[in-house]
UniProtKB/TrEMBL annotation:
Species annotation: Neoroseomonas terrae
Family: Belongs to the RNA methyltransferase TrmD family.
Alphabetical list of PANTHER family matching this protein: TRNA (GUANINE-N(1)-)-METHYLTRANSFERASE
Name of the top EC class for this enzyme: transferase
Binding, S-adenosyl-L-methionine: G114, V134, G135, D136, Y137, V138, L139
Record EC number: 2.1.1.228
Region of interest: Disordered: 222-241
InterPro entries: Alpha/beta_knot_MTases (IPR029028), tRNA_m1G_MeTrfase_C_sf (IPR023148), tRNA_m1G_MeTrfase_TrmD (IPR002649), tRNA_m1G_MTases_N (IPR029026), tRNA_MeTrfase_TRMD/TRM10 (IPR016009)
MF annotations from Gene Ontology: tRNA (guanine(37)-N1)-methyltransferase activity
Subunit organization: Homodimer.
Encoding gene per record: trmD
Protein name: tRNA (guanine-N(1)-)-methyltransferase
Keyword Protein transport: no
Lineage per the UniProt record: Bacteria, Pseudomonadati, Pseudomonadota, Alphaproteobacteria, Acetobacterales
Keywords (A to Z) from UniProt: Cytoplasm, Methyltransferase, S-adenosyl-L-methionine, Transferase, tRNA processing
Transmembrane segments: none
Amino acid sequence: MNWRASVLTLFPEMFPGPLGLSLAGRALREGRWAIDAHDIRAAATDRHRTVDDTPAGGGAGMVMRPDVLDSAIGAVMPEGDARPLIYLTPRGRLLDQATVRSLAEGPGCVLLCGRYEGIDQRVIEARGMVELSVGDYVLSGGEPAALVLLDACIRLLPGVMGAADSAAEESHGAEGLLEYPHYTRPAEWNGRAIPDVLLSGHHAEIARWRRAESERITKERRPDLWARHEAKQRGAGGMDG
Ligand code: SAM
């Protein structure tokens, strides 16, 4: 069966949105993945289709109701649906490439997009939601976060990326390093030249230069990733030796 994403949102018209274009859009048309977006409001039971209410304990904003969300989830996740139910939230674990890879290897996912102040805690617990964040900043809704998560997963699905744009050597790969810099023609542009080594045709030298640049950039920009990379190298060395 194809990888399938179901999205619960107050704005189903936002999907597939940009994912209907380019690489993801072609893969969607080829049936390599599928998406269905559902309006949470359809699960509301009152005349005004209310999905939110004031926060218990007072304070600003509104909170999405657990009963409405639970019934919206029930309508898209039949008993035995093996896909993880993910709530996009700035309070969640930061989405990283390892999580993306594991999601892409699974059957798909069900994404819940919050609005207002967020959703009632009880439905998070009752439904065993996985809480994921796309970064340490606050969006006005979970929809852009869902698009980010989906884009990252879809490009890893079998047959989506051609050999030309393979994921083998990019940032956040198996080594946990950031990628080296890229250059293309012209060889000189506005007084800036492409590093000689890249024009040397010497593959081993090029590979050495790229590796050194990857390490330098990771060390400089992301000491956290560098520390993890070093620890992993030490661990691997320890097992070999
Ligand atoms: N009151 C919440 C807080 O302080 O954590 C923020 C609510 S935000 C205005 C509304 C919705 O946007 C959230 O329920 C969530 O679904 C989504 N959202 C906002 N920032 C996000 C992020 N960094 N990652 C994932 N989802 C996010």
